[in-house]
Every structure is written in structure tokens, then in C-alpha cells.
Amino acid sequence: MTWGLATSHVPSIGAAMDHGKTQDPYWKPLFDGYAPAREWMARHTPDIAVVVYNDHANAVDMSVTPAFALGTAESYRVADEGWGSRPVPAVTGAPEFSDHLVKSLIDASFDLTVYQELDVDHGLTVPLSVYCPDPGERWPCAVVPLLVNVIQYPQPTAARCLALGRALGEAVRSFPEDLKVAVFGTGGMSHQLAGARAGLINQDFDRMFLDAIEHDPEKLAALTREEYIREAGSEGIELIMWLIMRGALGPRIRRVHEAYHVPASNTAAGMVLFENLSR
Amino acid sequence: MSSTTPRLPGTYVFDAAENRRGRALNRLCGSLKDAGNRERFTADEAAYCETYGLTAEQRDAVLRRDWNRMMELGGSIFYVFKLAMVDQKSMQYLGGVFTGMTTEEFAQALKAGGRNFG
Question: Can the keyword Oxidoreductase be found in this entry's annotation (chain B) (predicted)?
Fold first, then answer.
């Protein structure tokens, strides 16, 4: 486990990249904030990235709501979300590695749903673009999608997410091949899209979270879902996915870079990159 | 930790009961990610609503583009947004509708640091 990236996955961040708007005054501060992290990650390319994200009514509809699910496919198509697929490469999977994670995590009593077919939406492709803005014909690493229900209450608890992350870290370390693996926790930060509180931004909470995700993840794991929804908004509860990333890293980490920006469309956008020092 | 769905003023918390209540509406909106369905919907919106079994209230909210009402009738923002995309409306436009602001006022509130609730 070489590094962990937490990042928002706002669709308009992907659209800004796809339409060449990253130097527009509205977007430039956000992308300038990403630059040092991108430079570091470009020098530390993993073999496989585990991307923790949620689907947004594209591949997964609400007839079934898996709390946690893992993709085991050889490849994943980029979803058409209603305005055509993003012009980014299809995602190459890591089926043997996925199989290992499924066995390890179910043995550890995390009852995953398993996807053999999955179209991946902006929740997964925008974080990949945050990592690698110009992938060319293919992304620089294979990808394992790990989906979390953050849309339908009750979502998994924050504590359960941190525990899943720890089990994920152990599963990765027990894979027999010597591979470099990165883990992405995506979504957040504070945002609420609907209702009279739409446009909610709680910078104090976001800053606290950005600090505690490094120094005190247990404090974040102790927050209730109601607290996440109240403080970070009904969609801000996506932050629980960052805890899976954090749990997967070892006890010794180093913060490489962080960025925080308001607004990205209707939300705050956060990023934090950790190097894992305990291998 | 209690799993009672939180009641937070100004916030829709979408749970399994809301999912059941909004099912037809969300299925209709979700179907609009396919171009062929968008064409069929646009050709005859009322008939399209019939095929998805919307309640009369849900149908009226869709036909009148009453975004607040759609949310009150079990809509999930991730589904309802697909209908807004058919109309080429942005999430910031919806943000304005939900908060009683123009799109420009809503966008400006976000640029100024977002809306704060104590």
C-alpha cells in the first residue's frame, strides 16, 4: 500500500477537464491546488488503485442497495450518465486481485456484494482524472471499484467504514504478488444538493475533517450519520468513504499535500494525499 | 446508534420508505439516461408518465417541472437531476429553485463561501 488519496468527485470537475476549462478563472484555483499532488503521484505510479466511490443512479439503480460492493471484472465501461460518456479510457480491472479482496474481506466478516459487470460513473472516473489528467489511451494503473451506499439511509456507519478500510489494508498486504497499490477515498466534502438547505457549506467542519483524517480518524469514526448529514449536508455523508481509504493505510503515514476549495459547482472540494510509510 | 431516519429541517433524507414512495418517479427519471427514452419522453410526456405508473401528483409535478414537489413525493436528487438534464438545466439552477433564488444568486452565494446554517 503505497499511498492514499482522498478527493471530491464532483461531476463538473470532470467536465471542466473534458472541456478545457481548467484555466478559466472559476476553475484555475482548484486545479492549481491539485498540481503538487499530481506531480508526486505521477512519480509514484501504483500497479492497482482501489477506488472507493458511490454510483449515482447510473449502473446501480435503487431496486437493490448494496451497503458495500466490489468489482471483479476484467474491465469496466465508462457510464453514459445522460449526456454521453466522458471522453476518458475504459477502466482496466484486476480480477485476480479483486477475487483475493472478496475472499479476504468476506472472511473478515464484511459481506460484500460482488459485481462481475459494472459501468463506472463520475464517482470513479473523476477521481482518476484528479490523479491523472491526461491518461491518453489508457489509465496508468488497473482499478478495483469498491462501492459504498451513501445515498439511501441508513448508510454504513463511519466506524464500519474505518474498520472495512483496516480489513482492506490487511487484504492488500496478504496478496501473494508484490504489487504497488494505492487507495482512493472519494466524495465529500460538505454539500447538500436539494431542499431549503441546498448549497450548505460548513468550512469549519471540512477543515476539522481534513485535519482529523490524518491525526485522529477514530474521532471521525465516532460521528453518527445524523451528525454527518447535519454538519456536512445530505450528500456530505459521502465523507465516510474517506475513512475506508484512511483505514487501509498503515499506522505511519505522511501528508504529501492537501487542497480545499469553495465552490466546485454546488459543493466544497477537498483533496488530501498521504504517503504510506509502513509497508 | 439509532437507525431512526434523521429529521433535519430543510433536508431530504432518502431512506427505504422514501425509495418505495418515489419508486415510479425515480424509475422514470432514471430511464432518461438513455437517448431513446429521452426521445419518447419528449414526444409525449404525459403518455410516458403513464407507462411508468406515476401517481397523479408525481405526474403533475413532472409535467409542471415542480422540482420541489418532486422531492416531496419521494424523488431522489440523483434521479430528478436526469430530468433537469433533459431540459438542459444545471444543478446550480436546481439549487436556486430549492432555495428560492435565481440561478445567479445561488451561484453567487456559493462563490461567496456557500450557505451557512449555524
Answer: yes
Alpha carbon distances (Å) from A54 to A127, A155, B54: 12, 11, 27
Using an 8 Å Cβ cutoff, are B79 and B92 in contact? no
The pLDDT of residue B2: 62
Q: Enter the CATH code of domain B16-87.
A: 1.10.700.10
Do A268 and A260 form a contact (C-beta atoms < 8 A)?
yes
The residue extents of the domains of chain B are 16-87, 88-117
- Name the 3-class secondary structure at B66: coil
Which tens digits make up the pLDDT trace of A257-278? 999 999 999 999 999 999 999 8
Question: pLDDT digit string (tens) for B89-118?
Answer: 999 999 999 999 999 999 999 999 999 997
Catalytic position from the list A19, A44, A100, A191: A191
In sequence order, the 6+-apart residues with CB closer than 8 A to the CB of A9 are: A53, A122, A123, A124, A126, A127, A186, A187
- Interface residues of A toward B, Cβ cutoff 8 Å, are 12, 56-58, 61-62, 65, 80-83, 151-154, 157, 190, 192-203, 224-226, 229-230, 233-235, 262-263, 265-266, 268
pLDDT in tens, A102-112: 999 999 999 99
Question: Do the chains contact at A62 and B106, CB–CB below 8 Å?
Answer: no
Confidence of residue A83 (pLDDT cuts 50, 70, 90): confident
Q: What is the rounded CA–CA span in Å between residue A232 and residue A46?
A: 31
Q: Determine the CATH number of domain A3-198+210-264.
A: 3.40.830.10
Is A257 considered catalytic here?
A: no
**Is the bond into A263 cis (omega within 30 degrees of 0)?**
yes
Nearest of B24, B22, B3 to residue B12 by alpha carbon:
B22
Which residue ranges in chain B fall short of pLDDT 50? none
Bridge partners of A253, per DSSP, are A276
Average pLDDT of the residues in A45-66: 96
| Chain B environment of A80 (Cβ under 8 Å) | 33-34
The DSSP output letter for A239 is G
